[in-house]
Structure formats: structure tokens, C-alpha cells
Design a protein that fits this description.
The complex is a heterodimer of chains A (about 290) and B (about 325).
Chain A: H1 4-34, H2 42-60, H3 64-91, H4 96-119, E1 134-137, E2 140-143, H5 144-166, H6 168-178, H7 180-185, H8 190-215, H9 223-237, H10 242-263, H11 268-282
Chain B: H1 7-25, H2 29-52, H3 62-79, H4 84-106, H5 111-130, E1 141-142, H6 155-179, H7 181-191, H8 193-198, H9 203-222, H10 225-229, E2 231-232, H11 234-237, H12 240-253, H13 259-278, H14 281-298, H15 302-315
Antiparallel strand pairs in B: 1-2
Classes of the chains: A mainly alpha (about 290), B mainly alpha (about 325).
Chain lengths: ~290, ~325
């Protein structure tokens, strides 16, 4: 007999976790979903964001969410620069499928090893007043260390959704994926748009990283667990769709949380892979794909 | 018959004879440990290149295939106490089947899905092994080195010679593939999959064959590993470094030719041993990542490709 309390708590915790996963997958939904660039270094950049939050929090006591927002423009520039290199070396010469993938793999590896060299493999965490507290609603507990990241992630996702749907640049980003030539005929440079979009995707990694280190302690190799998760969410959500991505993130969060509650947390990393493989085998277009 | 006296087989025999002489002459155990690691990386690089270089599909989960071989060894050694040659065959079977399974699920789709699936595969296998207490779980497993080491003066000497034979065999397979009808089919897939399909190349079947061979070879590289290190735990067996080396070595050596991963593995592998001893192992790991990124950005054809281009220019 499954306890109702336990199940309700697992589902609520899963929804909160899923909201956070949306922030993790958001950048990838833009970069991989819209631009078709397989940036497997994205989770590593999220870890870099988490360490930025850790450094500024432990030195100056800044709030991690604030650090995430402050670091976003810097990450934007890093992303734009990264796309420049990627474009010049691989996309222009049509070698993105093999060399381009290996390039991002190399970047991921460099970030991880560089962080280990400087900070070691110890777990790092941030300290803020509200993180230890819990909001109790009946028999369901909502810890602030999950609730705050959830709220920030939802805000970020909605902001990006509105940006892509309503603004000129946002629509141009969606157009790059659909019809490059038509975009050029409208007088827009597709390379500049892609560079802008790639920067935007990487900027979300700064915020996602800050949220990651609020939820729990972080060490450099944690990022690898998020590769399967982030790609599973983007594929399940139907590649380019931000709203589909959000629903997929919630689904994955709930499944993982229920598995962790009833079978033990050490099985949770395997869930994302199962979801990914099932999606690819049964419905590669994703839940909300075209 | 003509093939038997080709320069390749002559050099293969010379290499094996030199290896045998080396076990009789060299006294310092360190050389055998270092050579074992280089040969292990060489087999991994050659295996990666069969899919990556010949067929054009990226495998990020090399560490998963390697560890599957290693853990098959541990499980069967504990359960049945099989001799090492049988464990190697078993490792090849298990990793080959994993390759076939992942390939079957994802290779019908776009190549990137296969790449992502292999990456996730390594993580899932690690989760599985960490929860599998029979092979030690997250705590790891100790392996007793067998007493018997044939006529060699120590077990490491024997393992070194075994690895040398396996490495020569895998290079021979890779070379054979490169020039065979199958290899030409794989090259056609790499250059233009749709055109290949239209020309009647059974693309899915060929891709599955090359994924299976790749997986099996990586399993072979992993199977003797527990006896080499005598203590295996998931984090070291699934080390990302194994996966990075498997990609970096062929990319640096050159992916289109069978010689590429061999050159890359010998060069990068030796360099790594030198840096590890003289500077530090962390710097060594960082350096591989930087070399990988620099080579694929600036010299995507690798060392063998550069040499080929140079030779062609001179003859023209």
C-alpha cells in the first residue's frame, strides 16, 4: 500500500524539481532545438555558473539568484564568442556533425578539469538565510531551497517564451531554424541572429547554475548527470518548442522524484536515459513536435 | 597469399617479437605499466575510429563500453573463475551487444541522437554498476591476481604481452575494414548517407555492424583491466578520461585512415606518460582536452592527413 502522504510529497517535490530542470534545459532548447547546434558543453557551463555563484556568495555574501542575473551578460558574451569559433571552424565548412560535436565535448572536458584543478573535487555550497526553511501546506512541505529555484526558473522560461514569440529578434531566431534563405531576403544576417541566440542560450546557463547550487552542493563532475536530463527534456518536448520543453521538464522531474522516493535516489540518474531512449524509439518528434 | 608477406604483417611480427624480447630484457616494472596503458588507449582509439572515423558517427560513451568489459570480467571471474582469454571473449560479447542495442535504437534517427545516447549510456551503466552489490557496488571490487603467469617473470609482463597481441589484432581488423567492401560502404555513409542509401548501400546494417565491432573491441580493451589494477570501482572504470582519449587520439592522428588512431595513440599516449611522471596528472588531463579542441579546430584532418597532403603536394 503506497502512502498517500509520501506520494503527494514526491509529486510536489517532483514538480518543483521539474521547474528547475526547465531552467537547465532552456538554453539547450534554444541552441539545440532552434539552432540545431549540439552543445553538449551546456551542462558544464551551468556548473561554471554554479561556481560563479559559489565564489561571489562566499566572498561577498551575494544572493545566488542575484549573482545568476549579474553573470548572465558575461555568459552571453562567452556564448557569442564560442559561436564565432564554432561557426568559423565547423559550420562554415560543413563539419559540424563529427568535429563540431567533438569540439563541444572538448570544451566540456576543459571546463570540468579546470574547475577540478582550481577547486578540487570537494562539494561546494552557497549560504543564504532562507535556504534552510520550509513552507508547510497541510501535509505537503515546500522547502525554500526548491521553491525559490522553481519560481526563478518559471519566470525565466516565461520571459524567454515571450521574447521568442513577441519580439523581432525572437521571431528571427525561430525563423533561422525554419527558413534561412527567407530570413536573408528579409534583410537579416542569419549568422548574427544565431550568434545572438547562442549567447542567449548560454546566458540562461548562468542563472541555471545559480539555481543548481541553491538546491544542493555541487562538484565539477555533477554536470555530466545533466547532459542526459537536458537532452531528454528537449527531445521529449519536441525540439524547438519552449512550452513543450517546460511540460517535459515537469514530467521528468515527477518521474525522477517518484523513483527516488520509492526505489532510492541512486537510481534517479538512469531515469532520464530511459525517458530519452523511449522517446527516440517511440516518438522521436517528441510530445509536442511538429 | 600475397597478403601474408605484406609490409604490414612483417612489421606486426617484428612488433610482437620486440615485445617478447622486451619482457625478457627490461627490468623496470614501470615501463610495462606505462606500455599497458598506452596499448589499452590504442585499442580504444582504433575501436572508436571504426565508427567515428570510418562511418562518421560520434561515440561519447567509450568509457561505458570499456567498463562493461571490465565489469563482465569481474562478475564472471567471481561467479565462475573463468580464465582470462574467456573473460576477454565475454567482455567483447557484452560490449558488442550493448553497441548493437544502442545502435539499433538510435542509428535510424539523426546521428546526434546516437551521440547523445552513448553519452547517457555511460551514466546509466555507471548507475547500474553502482547499485549492483555483487560486483562491489559503489565501494568497488578487489581482484586477486592469478598465480599462473606462464613463462613470464611477472603477471604484468604477461598482461603487457597480451595487450600487445590484442592491439596488433585490433589494428589488423581496422586495416582490413578500411580497405574492404564493408569499409567502402562505411566511407560512403560518412560522406553522404542519403546518396549511399540511394546507391544501394544497406546503411542501417553497415552502421550496426560497425557499432557492434566498435563495442566489442572496447570490451576487449576493458576485460583485462581489473587484473591490471586489481581494484576497480565505478568512478575509475567509467572515467571520462577514457572517453576523451578515445576521441582525442584518432582526431589528433587523423580519422580517415586506419593508421591515424595508431599514430595518435602512440604519440599522445607516450606524451601523457612523460607529463604524468614529470609534471602532474591533472595538467596531463587538461592538456588532452586542449589538444583535442586545437586539433579539430585547426587541423581537422589530423597528423596522417597532414602528411598525406604534404606527400601529394611533393609528388605533384
Amino acid at each position: 500500500m503506497v502512502s498517500v502522504d509520501l506520494l503527494a510529497n514526491a509529486i510536489v517535490a517532483g514538480l518543483l524539481l521539474g521547474g528547475f530542470y526547465a531552467a537547465v534545459a532552456l538554453g539547450l532548447a534554444i541552441v539545440f532545438g532552434q539552432l540545431d547546434i549540439v552543445n553538449i558543453a551546456h551542462p558544464a557551463l551551468i556548473i561554471a555558473g554554479a561556481y560563479t555563484a559559489y565564489i561571489l556568495n562566499s566572498r561577498f555574501g551575494l544572493d545566488p539568484v542575484l549573482v545568476g542575473v549579474l553573470a548572465a551578460p558575461v555568459f552571453f558574451l562567452v556564448g557569442a564568442g564560442l559561436y564565432r569559433v564554432y561557426y568559423a571552424a565547423f559550420e562554415r565548412t560543413g563539419q559540424e556533425s563529427l568535429s563540431g560535436l567533438a569540439f563541444f565535448f572538448g570544451i566540456m572536458f576543459i571546463i570540468e578539469v579546470a574547475l577540478i584543478l582550481v577547486y578540487g573535487v570537494d562539494y561546494r555550497l552557497v549560504q543564504t538565510g532562507y535556504l534552510g526553511e520550509t513552507l508547510n501546506l497541510g501535509f505537503v512541505g515546500l522547502p525554500y531551497r526548491m521553491l525559490v529555484p522553481f519560481a526563478v526558473a518559471v519566470t525565466l522560461t516565461v520571459a524567454v517564451y515571450v521574447y521568442l514569440a513577441r519580439t523581432f529578434t525572437g521571431r528571427a531566431i525561430q525563423a533561422v531554424a525554419q527558413d534561412r534563405l527567407a530570413l536573408q531576403l528579409m534583410g537579416v544576417d542569419p549568422i548574427r541572429i544565431k550568434q545572438w541566440a547562442f549567447g542567449l542560450g548560454i546566458a540562461t546557463a548562468a542563472v541555471a547554475g545559480a539555481l543548481l547550487i541553491m538546491i544542493g552542493p555541487v562538484e565539477p563532475s555533477v554536470g555530466r548527470q545533466y547532459i542526459g536530463r537536458a537532452f531528454a527534456i528537449v527531445v521529449l518536448g519536441g525540439m524547438g518548442s519552449i512550452s513543450g520543453m517546460f511540460v517535459a521538464a515537469l514530467i521528468l522531474g515527477v518521474i525522477e522524484s517518484v523513483v527516488a522516493t520509492f526505489y532510492g535516489p541512486s537510481w534517479a540518474p538512469a531515469v532520464a536515459f530511459g525517458v530519452l531512449l523511449l522517446t527516440l524509439a517511440l516518438r522521436p518528434a517528441g510530445l509536442f513536435g511538429r | 597469399m600475397r597478403n601474408l608477406v605484406s609490409p604490414f604483417w612483417v612489421s606486426a611480427v617484428v612488433v610482437l617479437a620486440a615485445g617478447l624480447a622486451f619482457t625478457e630484457l627490461a627490468a623496470n616494472e614501470y615501463y610495462f605499466t606505462a606500455a599497458y596503458l598506452i596499448l589499452q588507449a590504442l585499442i580504444m582509439a582504433v575501436a572508436w575510429n571504426i565508427l567515428g572515423g570510418f562511418t562518421g558517427y560520434v561515440n561519447f560513451g567509450s568509457a561505458g563500453f570499456f567498463a562493461a568489459g571490465a565489469y563482465t570480467s569481474i562478475a564472471l571471474d567471481k561467479a565462475l573463475g573463468l580464465p582470462l582469454p574467456l573473460l576477454i571473449v565475454a567482455g567483447a560479447l557484452v560490449s558488442g551487444l550493448i553497441g548493437l542495442g544502442v545502435g539499433y535504437l538510435t542509428l535510424r534517427l539523426r546521428g546526434v541522437y546516437f551521440a547523445i545516447a552513448t553519452l547517457a549510456l555511460a551514466i546509466v551503466l555507471e548507475t547500474f554498476v553502482s547499485n549492483w552489490t555483487y560486483v562491489g557496488g559503489a565501494r568497488g571490487a578487489f581482484i586477486l591476481t592469478p598465480e599462473n603467469h606462464l613463462w613470464f617473470s611477472s603477471y604484468v609482463h604477461m598482461l603487457f604481452m597480451l595487450m600487445l597481441i590484442l592491439a596488433v589484432a585490433s589494428v589488423a581488423i581496422s586495416r582490413k575494414l578500411n580497405f574492404s567492401r564493408l569499409g567502402r560502404g562505411l566511407a560512403a555513409i560518412r560522406d553522404d548517407e542519403i546518396a549511399a542509401e540511394c546507391a544501394g548501400v544497406p546503411t542501417l546494417r553497415l552502421k550496426l555492424v560497425s557499432t557492434t565491432i566498435m563495442g566489442a573491441m572496447m570490451g576487449v580493451a576493458g576485460a583485462p583491466y581489473p587484473f591490471f589494477v586489481t581494484y576497480v570501482e565505478p568512478i575509475s572504470a567509467f572515467n571520462l578520461f577514457v572517453a576523451v582519449n578515445a576521441i582525442a587520439m584518432p582526431m589528433i592522428g587523423g580519422t580517415a585512415h586506419w593508421l591515424g588512431p595508431v599514430v595518435g595513440a602512440l604519440l599522445v599516449g607516450s606524451l601523457q606518460e612523460i607529463i604524468k611522471v614529470n609534471i602532474s596528472s591533472e595538467i596531463n588531463i587538461l592538456l588532452v582536452g586542449i589538444m583535442l579542441v586545437l586539433f579539430i579546430s585547426l587541423a581537422p584532418q589530423g597528423i596522417v592527413g597532414l602528411v598525406q597532403k604534404h606527400l601529394r603536394k611533393r609528388s605533384a
